Amino acid sequence: MTNHPQDAEAAAAKEESSPRRGSPFAEQQPVVFAKTRGNTDANTRGGDSSPPLDVGVLPATALGAVAASIAVIPFAAACYWLFPGGGMLVAPLGALLAAMGTVSPRTKTSIVMLLLHLGLFAACFQQTVIAAGI
Fold it and tell me: For bias kind Polar residues, which ranges apply (predicted)?
């Protein structure tokens, strides 16, 4: 095999057509990651095709939703005594955040917060109905 200038130009053109990935200082070939559930063969598509829930930013987002649900509790409780109509808006917000948190590692906490927010919603609704005289 001879090294012709044309071969070197073709190799350089090939390298330029595909951008380099990974560290420019790496001496080894890049590591090929294992297949996730989303990249399975066509033969196994009959099973669960949902994306995995423990990848990306979803776990951190779910933990943040649990923390936000806990933070909304005092406001929903204050709305029960001060402005029950507003509590009917704040309590479902906390319930939605708690429902988002059910995919986090703190599932029990998020379920407790969900039930607490739903209870506060029902209490605020009852206070509103009583205040309206319906």
Answer: 37-47
In order, the DSSP letters of 24-61 are TT--SPPPPPPP-GGG--GGGTTS--SPPTTSTTHHHH
Segment 32-82, tens digit of pLDDT: 555 555 555 544 555 666 666 667 788 889 999 999 999 999 999 999 999
Domain ranges of the chain: 58-132
Render the chain in DSSP notation, one character per residue. Answer: ----HHHHHHHHHHHHHS---S-TT--SPPPPPPP-GGG--GGGTTS--SPPTTSTTHHHHHHHHHHHHHHHHHHHHHHHHH-HHHHHHHHHHHHHHHHHGGGSS-HHHHHHHHHHHHHHHHHHHHHHHHHHT-
Q: What is the pTM of this model?
A: 0.60
In single-letter form, the type of residue at position 124 comes to: C
